[in-house]
């Protein structure tokens, strides 16, 4: 909880944790302390597996203990106890809540219906789930939270200096870096991460520059954060996307790690613009030749602004596997980054 923003200023919001899986009880307890930045609850669909406190009467007890346990169980199922549970931020087993429940905005009530507009009036959320949904949810959660090995590649071409009116006139670069820093907070120390930037002729004749080699966040998290904060666009730089993509793919594949999703996440606001680089035909041909089902590399491309050629980018991911996510509004880069992470369950290992 200490990683959430502790102040409402721009710096705290950019560096603090912006999203995390929490129980409803956690959200209620956090907001009850009146933090500078309260949490907003986002309820996912389909309804995930509920957290609960099981109650069971064990067989083989003497009659007196069995009767006492049954009496306790009956008391727990009364309306009065439901209100006591509500005061602690807990629902009843069937998903209903009591009058003391401070439901976060958007809390589902009743099941399958619209969000409740009267948080303390009592309500219900889904309490039951079918085995298929349970198995799918658990499998997805296991895949999403599995350690990953990722190379993040940031576009630093001159167009990243363009201003974004919707973000208090910050540059595209600043908005993208803010989202990247927030994304870094989602990954625990079991992840391995590297960081490159790219434009044209950024490092001698190379269009890309390595800022942080791929390594465990347990040892290079501070280095990665520091590198992100130091990134500045190359004012006269173009977009050497093809050469960079090929080099990044080789880098991730060469160090391929089993039992992880090995991936490239590339942020760009344009299309390939490099007269001295390889052609699209050459790139696709080489990627096809490199592709190895024993060492798969997932490519995720995040496009920002109206200068992105989505079809061009999709032709790349059609070869490598992965996906392209484009938003014309740079302030939505954080949203599409989260959507991109949802690809991980389907990624081969």
TrEMBL record:
Region (Disordered): 86-129
Residue span, VWFA domain: 149-341
Comp. bias intervals (Low complexity): 99-110
Top-rank taxon, per record: Bacteria
Signal peptide start-end: none
Protein name, UniProt field: VWFA domain-containing protein
């Amino acid at each position: 909880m200490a990683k959430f923003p502790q102040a409402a200023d721009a710096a705290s919001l950019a560096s603090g944790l912006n999203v995390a899986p929490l129980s409803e009880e956690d959200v209620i307890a956090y907001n009850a302390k009146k933090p500078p930045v309260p949490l907003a609850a986002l309820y996912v669909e389909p309804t995930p597996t509920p957290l609960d406190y099981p109650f069971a009467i064990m067989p083989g007890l003497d009659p007196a203990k069995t009767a006492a346990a049954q009496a306790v169980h009956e008391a727990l199922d009364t309306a009065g106890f439901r209100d006591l549970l509500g005061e602690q931020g807990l629902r009843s087993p069937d998903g209903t809540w009591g009058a003391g429940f401070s439901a976060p905005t958007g809390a589902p009530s009743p099941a399958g219906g619209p969000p409740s507009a009267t948080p303390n009036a009592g309500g219900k959320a889904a309490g039951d789930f079918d085995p298929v949904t349970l198995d799918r949810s658990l499998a997805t959660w296991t895949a999403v939270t599995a350690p990953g090995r990722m190379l993040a590649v940031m576009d630093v071409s001159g167009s990243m200096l363009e201003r974004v009116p919707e973000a208090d006139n910050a540059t595209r670069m600043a908005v993208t870096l803010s989202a990247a820093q927030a994304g870094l907070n989602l990954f625990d120390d079991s992840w391995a991460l590297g960081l490159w930037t790219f434009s044209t002729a950024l490092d001698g004749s190379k269009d890309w520059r390595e800022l942080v080699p791929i390594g465990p966040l347990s040892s290079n998290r501070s280095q990665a954060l520091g590198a992100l904060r130091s990134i500045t666009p190359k004012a006269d730089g173009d977009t050497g996307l093809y050469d960079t993509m090929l080099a990044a793919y080789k880098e991730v594949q060469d160090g391929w790690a089993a039992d992880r999703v090995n991936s490239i996440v590339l942020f760009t606001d344009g299309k390939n613009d490099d007269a001295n680089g390889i052609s699209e035909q050459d790139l696709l041909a080489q990627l096809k030749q490199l592709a190895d089902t024993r060492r798969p590399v997932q490519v995720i491309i995040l496009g920002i602004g109206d200068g992105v050629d989505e079809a061009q980018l999709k032709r790349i991911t059609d070869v490598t596997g992965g996906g392209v996510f484009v938003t014309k509004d740079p302030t939505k880069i954080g949203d599409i980054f989260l959507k991109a992470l949802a690809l991980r369950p389907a990624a081969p290992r």
